[in-house]
Automatic annotation (TrEMBL):
The keyword Acetylation does not apply. This is inositol-phosphate phosphatase. Its cofactor is Mg(2+). GO terms for molecular function: inositol monophosphate phosphatase activity; metal ion binding. It holds the Pfam family Inositol_P. It catalyses: a myo-inositol phosphate + H2O = myo-inositol + phosphate. Its EC number is 3.1.3.25. It comes from Streptomyces doudnae. Mg(2+) binds at residues 80, 103, 106, 228. Keywords: Magnesium, Metal-binding. The keyword Magnesium applies. Gene3D superfamilies: 3.40.190.80, Fructose-1,6-Bisphosphatase, subunit A, domain 1.
Length: 281
């Protein structure tokens, strides 16, 4: 447990392994036992047929809320399901206290469908600045971590996003059509040009991991829920990547961003995607 005189940096140096343990245990206890075994009564809709929530989401978030709050007394947990129940919870991201930003199952639709493309996302932030993140894909047994100024790692191996190969179409994951308005679709359609190979995204967290690994060149997302982006944005940045909103400013987890925004393997790619996206305005 953190002492009263410890800084966040000291907390991370001493307790990052405890955070990792909590995430793995949440997945082992609440998520994986339900993978490919969900009953109909364990799956509900929130905003519509594509916006799903399961008992695994709720129970894993409850588990992480209890453990993370104990590890870092005085911190606040902002989880996707807690915000769905009480939108005012989201305001803690803008406060002065340390905030854990949690998406218990990112890629719930994939989870419900029995696909391994889902993950648990946890980020630690303060004053709107991302300090550390964890991206755990339990069905694939992959854990990616990032610490501000300390690099990004996948299963202990340093991640470097690198640069796209010259002469090859840029591979870009975009907001899925099922979750976008007609106006958002028109903006994202500006990427349907020579030299760009867009496709709908799956789990946002795993798309960010793909960018950090150099397997995907960029993302283009049109929503700003912090639990979907916080962990991945720090992962990409610490792997050497870059991110920009259409206004040319960095994405802020506190909100109020000009959308859409991109995260890319390098600054030149981020600027290229941003320039194309501004063509719709």
């Amino acid at each position: 447990m953190i002492g009263h005189t410890e800084t966040i940096e000291e907390f991370l140096a001493q307790h990052a392994a405890d955070v990792e343990k909590a995430i793995r245990e949440a997945a082992a206890t609440e998520i994986m036992p339900r993978f490919r075994t969900l009953a109909a009564h364990e799956v509900d809709q929130k905003a519509g047929p594509h916006d799903l929530v399961t008992d695994a989401d709720r129970l894993a978030e409850r588990y992480l809320t209890e453990v993370l709050g104990t590890l870092l007394p005085g911190s606040v947990v902002v989880g996707e399901e807690a915000v769905h129940a009480d939108p005012d919870v989201y305001e803690a991201i803008q406060g002065d206290t340390p905030v854990w930003i949690v998406d218990p199952v990112d890629g719930t639709r994939q989870f419900v469908g029995g696909d391994t493309g889902f993950c648990t996302l946890v980020a630690l932030a303060r004053h709107g600045e991302l300090l550390a993140s964890w991206t755990y894909a339990p069905a694939r047994d992959q854990l990616a971590t990032a610490v501000r100024g300390g690099g990004a790692h996948l299963d202990g191996v340093r991640l470097r996003a690198g640069t796209p190969d010259a002469g090859r179409d840029l591979r870009v994951a975009t907001s899925h059509p099922d979750y976008t308005t007609d106006a958002q679709k028109r903006v994202l359609h500006t990427l349907s040009v020579d030299g760009i190979a867009p496709r709908p995204c799956g789990s946002a967290g795993l798309e960010y991991l793909a960018v950090a690994r150099g397997e995907l060149d960029a993302t283009a997302f049109s929503w700003e829920a912090a639990w979907d982006h916080a962990a991945g944005l720090l992962l990409v940045e610490e792997a050497g990547g870059a991110q920009l909103t259409v206004s040319g400013e960095p994405f802020r987890i506190t909100g109020g961003n000009a959308l859409p925004f991109t995260a890319a393997r390098d600054a030149a790619t981020a600027e290229r995607i941003r320039t194309l996206l501004t063509g719709a305005y």
